Amino acid sequence: MIVLGCALRVLAFGLFAVVTSPVGILAAAVLTGFAGALFNPAVRAYLSREAGEERAGAFAVFNTRPTPGRSSDRCSGRCCSPWTSAWSRPSRA
Which helix H or strand E contains 22, and what residues bound it? Predict the structure, then answer.
């Protein structure tokens, strides 16, 4: 299910790139949601089985990794994640 969810999501995002009609965009959005519905539970079940005794820590990391910097955004009003902070700094040329 994990691989099928990934493949469908890739297909759906590809549809977003090529369709121009509202019906096509709606179809791509529905396919994206369906792919996520296949992928997410399968990944969580796999993580639960493989983590063993470290299940709580594994889920803590799993739930925070896709959203780096979001909690700091709320505090400072700007993006502070390591991937985007280089763009927000003045250059030293």
Answer: helix 22-51
Taking the C-alpha atoms of residue 12 and residue 44, their distance in angstroms, rounded to an integer, is: 22
Rounded to two decimals, what is the model's pTM? 0.60
Domain locations in the chain as residue ranges? 2-70
List, in order, residues 6 or more apart from 29 with CB less than 8 Å away: 12
pLDDT in tens, 22-33: 999 999 999 999
Kindly give, in sequence order, each residue whose CB lies less than 8 Å from that of residue 86, ignoring residues fewer than 6 positions away.
Answer: none
pLDDT digits (tens, 9 = 90+) for 38-50: 988 888 888 888 8
User: What is the rounded average pLDDT for all residues in the chain?
Assistant: 77
Q: Which of 64, 63, 81 is nearest to 72 (CA)?
A: 81
Query: Tokens in use for 88?
Result: 């927000």
Give 50-58 contacts, CB < 8 A, sequence gap 24+.
Answer: none
